[in-house]
């Protein structure tokens, strides 16, 4: 059955066997990955925060030009848009467009709406958004409340579509239905696949026989889709596009900052290329099943080895292997020369990494190649796509390396960092604040304005880490005047104490950490 025939996406717990609870060793998680699609998910008897689907979902939708987001829910559900707007503005400017803000409105559901239903409120919001902004698309983002009270969001959209000029895209982001925040990517892709891929050039079936087939054949031979969700900014998009252009391919970047009037072009590419399997597998499989667009989905181009593999996989599918080898040889020689001065400085320094699944694991392999010792890894969820990265880590690091799977549990992270005491922490801003208050030098692992992917990303990251480690005084001074909100006896406990099922907590965690130091 095509995904366009169902209303909502299947949650990743069921579709991929994804999980968010684990505390143990690299060897153990890699071994379990061989035996089954994923680990048996566990539970925590205490949980401190989580990641809402609206955060990654709105990060995509807010970049789409001439789009209005309608958050059907409480007024606070649109809050992520405030922090994401800087990325929307800068992303438009970088691509040669005028400065544009993300436009979002809320149905601002109240107690009366919860009791009586809010379908009329949503219907009126759609009509008002179309009249006020005249957008090309309106994305209706269903949040938890309408999912709980049973609002027929899709029915309202079907009724309103004939009344507005904008194309209406349903996006079901009811966070209570899944623990896996990455399900939001599936929800966005699902809505776009249902509503945004119609080709206005070929509405007339009479011209479809000759012109349609001729145009598609040409576009397939010369165009690839480059998936650019929230794992890369414009600097990364430009760098990866440079490689693909060197393989004689025109690049159709999707979905961030993709023109709604041209989204249909994704159907006519000769190949779809993922930059992160965590984001992309749902739509890539649909494009192959529905439109015969094959895909490359295995590695994230972070680090020299992964970038080489990524380029070779693409070139093999395109019949451009000789061109790829010349590109790789030229780039790697130049990069190794530039990195030579950093290797002695990084050698032996211990680093802890915290991020989304693929970015965390691929970055660990990159840092190992730069000379670091990997002290621990914390990723936000786990699924079958990570197994290939765990196999690489087993070749590069200690099999007893501590692995933590946690969707935003800072108390576990604080305990881990206090026990392991790494020389460097790489993570998102929330984790960086935890590390900094412990006096650990930290660096942001993702910023849409910084280069991170490909060969350029390796050099830029090395240069930034060198500056950070050469002068760590800020973090050390800050730790003398701030503290984390945990009692001293928490740091004496096993960090995985509150994981109560699904995994075996390593009893010798503290001993392992001492040995790794």
Structural description of this entry:
It is a single chain. With 517 residues, the chain is α/β, with parallel strands linked by helices. The protein folds into 3 domains: 54-177 and 179-195, Nitrogenase molybdenum iron protein domain (Rossmann fold, 3-Layer(aba) Sandwich), CATH 3.40.50.1980; 202-332, Nitrogenase molybdenum iron protein domain (Rossmann fold, 3-Layer(aba) Sandwich); 346-516, Rossmann fold, CATH 3.40.50.1980. It has 22 helices and 14 strands. The protein has a 6-stranded mixed beta sheet, sandwiched between helices. A 4-stranded parallel beta sheet has the order 3-2-4-5, sandwiched between helices. Strands 7-6-8-9 form a 4-stranded parallel beta sheet, with helices on both faces. Helix 13 (304-318) packs antiparallel against helix 14. The longest helix is centred in the middle third of the chain and has 19 residues, at 321-339. It starts with 11 loop residues before the first helix and ends with a helix. Residues 34-38 have low confidence and may be disordered.
């Amino acid at each position: 059955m095509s995904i366009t025939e169902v209303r909502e996406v299947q949650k990743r717990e069921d579709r991929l066997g994804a999980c968010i609870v684990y505390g143990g060793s690299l060897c153990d998680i890699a071994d379990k990955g061989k035996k089954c699609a994923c680990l048996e998910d566990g539970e925590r008897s205490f949980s401190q925060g989580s990641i809402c689907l609206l955060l990654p979902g709105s990060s995509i939708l807010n970049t789409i030009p001439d789009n209005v987001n309608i958050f059907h829910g409480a007024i606070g559900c649109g809050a992520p848009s405030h922090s994401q707007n800087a990325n929307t503005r800068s992303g438009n400017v970088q691509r040669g467009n005028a400065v544009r803000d993300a436009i979002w409105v809320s149905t601002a559901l109240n107690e009366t709406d919860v009791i009586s239903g809010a379908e009329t409120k949503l219907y009126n919001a759609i009509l008002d958004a179309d009249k006020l902004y005249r957008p090309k698309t309106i994305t209706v983002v269903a949040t938890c409340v309408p999912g709980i009270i049973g609002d027929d969001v899709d029915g309202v959209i079907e009724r309103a579509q004939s009344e507005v000029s904008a194309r209406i895209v349903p996006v079901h982001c009811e966070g209570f239905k899944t623990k896996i925040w990455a399900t939001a990517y599936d929800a966005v892709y699902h809505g776009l696949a249902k509503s945004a891929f119609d080709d206005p050039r070929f509405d007339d079936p009479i011209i479809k026989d000759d012109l349609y087939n001729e145009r598609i054949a040409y576009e397939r031979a010369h165009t690839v889709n480059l998936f650019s969700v929230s794992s890369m900014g414009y600097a990364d998009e430009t760098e990866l596009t440079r490689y693909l252009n060197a393989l004689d391919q025109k690049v159709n970047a999707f979905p961030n900052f993709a023109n709604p009037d041209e989204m249909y072009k994704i159907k006519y590419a000769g190949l779809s290329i993922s930059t992160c399997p965590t984001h992309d597998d749902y739509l890539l499989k649909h494009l192959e099943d529905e439109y015969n667009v094959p895909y490359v989905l295995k590695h994230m181009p972070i680090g020299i080895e992964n970038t080489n593999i990524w380029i070779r996989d693409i070139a093999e599918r395109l019949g451009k292997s000789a061109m790829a080898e010349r590109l790789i040889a030229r780039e790697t020689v130049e990069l190794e020369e530039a990195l030579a001065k950093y290797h002695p400085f990084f050698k032996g320094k211990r680093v802890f990494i915290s991020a989304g699944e693929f970015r965390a694991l691929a970055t660990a392999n990159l840092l190992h190649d730069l000379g670091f010792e990997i002290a621990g890894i914390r990723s936000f969820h786990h699924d079958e796509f990570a197994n290939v990265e765990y196999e690489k880590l087993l070749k590069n690091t200690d099999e007893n390396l501590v692995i933590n799977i946690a969707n935003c549990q800072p108390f576990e992270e604080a305990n881990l960092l206090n026990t392991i005491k790494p020389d460097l922490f790489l993570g998102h801003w929330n984790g960086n604040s935890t590390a900094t208050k412990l006096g650990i030098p930290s660096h942001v692992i993702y910023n849409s304005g910084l280069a991170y992917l490909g060969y350029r990303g390796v050099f830029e990251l090395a240069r930034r880490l060198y500056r950070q480690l050469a002068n760590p005084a800020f973090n050390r001074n800050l730790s003398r005047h701030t503290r984390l909100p945990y009692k001293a006896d928490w740091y004496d406990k096993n960090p995985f104490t509150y994981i109560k099922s699904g995994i075996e907590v390593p009893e010798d965690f503290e001993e392992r950490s001492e040995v790794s130091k």
